[in-house]
Design brief:
Number of strands: 11
Strand content: 15-25%
Strand order of the largest sheet: 1-5-6-7-3
Helix content: 25-40%
Distance between the termini: 61 Å
Shape: globular
Number of helices: 9
Low-confidence stretches: none
Radius of gyration: 20 Å
Structural class: alpha+beta
Number of domains: 1
Largest sheet: 5 strands, mixed
Length: 284
């Protein structure tokens, strides 16, 4: 793949189409990273995420019993697979805006690959202790048409870009952001490499010292784009900027097809009592 020498909306559009039809299973991450570098600089749109609210992270239990370790439910320190916002061996925290979305997201892979439909989860509610410098992924048409307030964010960012760019530059800005947003919104996943574009995007922006990004906010595919997920730097937990506020022992039952919302999410137990790394469950 050749480098784009002179940038135009037409050339960027053609390149995004070429990239989007690649069979990613056939490529190594380094190759895809090189293709991105030959095509354009990765765009990002910062969005202040204010302090004082919570996000939720879910873990499937090894048994019916909940986990007792805070570290166990915080983040995966060494993932051996590619996901939507991480490469192999690159630790990233994942969370959702609500307990329900977190529970549904966490069970998707097992629902698709096994016959299991009832799951027991430990879900942590993490309180944000300072404003976060975030990126919001908001250019996917599927997500914009889902009926959330994502369009408000998109319109605000668009007006911000219009105030400092030419019409041509805004067009190119839209094309590049739409390409990566569609990658974050991808629903047909046949191989872990199908996440490469969004995972490489996340890896790049999180490494940027200039951007200094704390987290990436993107629509939840599992929840039909009607809610949001967070990919965040694990330092936020390590440094106490994300603090465990409560833990929940949850049972979730997918009674029908995988892609329908489950009819049964039950909180079996909850606690806000912790000692060092130990979760102290109430009523035990």
């Amino acid at each position: 793949m050749k480098s784009i020498k002179s940038i135009s909306a037409k050339k960027i559009s053609r390149r995004t189409i070429t990239l989007s039809i690649l069979n990613l299973e056939d490529y190594e991450p380094k190759t895809i990273s090189n293709y991105i570098n030959l095509s354009f600089k990765i765009p990002y749109n910062t969005w202040n995420q204010p302090t004082g609210f919570s996000i939720f992270r879910s873990c499937i239990n090894d048994s019916k019993e909940p986990y007792n370790s805070i570290k166990r439910i915080a983040y995966n320190p060494n993932p051996d697979y590619i996901e939507r916002a991480n490469l192999k061996g690159k630790k990233i925290g994942y969370a959702s805006q609500s307990l329900e979305i977190s529970a549904i997201e966490n069970c998707q892979y097992a629902c698709k690959t096994t016959k299991q439909r009832i799951y027991y989860l430990t879900i942590g509610e993490w309180e944000i202790k300072r404003d976060l410098n975030s990126i919001i992924i908001c250019h996917s048409n599927k997500a914009l048409n889902a009926g959330t307030d994502l369009r408000i964010a998109y319109n605000a960012l668009l007006e911000r870009e219009k105030s400092k760019r030419t019409r041509k530059e805004v067009r190119i800005w839209n094309l590049k952001n739409r390409f990566f947003a569609e990658q974050f919104s991808k629903s047909r996943i046949k191989h872990e490499n199908d996440y490469l574009f969004s995972a490489l995007y996340s890896n790049t922006v999180f490494k940027s010292k200039k951007a200094n990004i704390d987290c990436i906010i993107y629509p939840s595919v599992a929840y039909k784009y009607k809610g949001f997920n967070y990919a965040f730097k694990t330092q936020l937990i390590d440094e106490g900027l994300l603090a465990l506020k409560a833990a929940y022992h949850v049972r979730i039952d997918f009674k029908q097809k995988v892609f329908r919302y489950p009819k049964d999410i039950v909180i079996l137990n909850t606690t806000s009592h912790f000692r060092n790394d130990v979760i102290i469950w109430d009523n035990k």
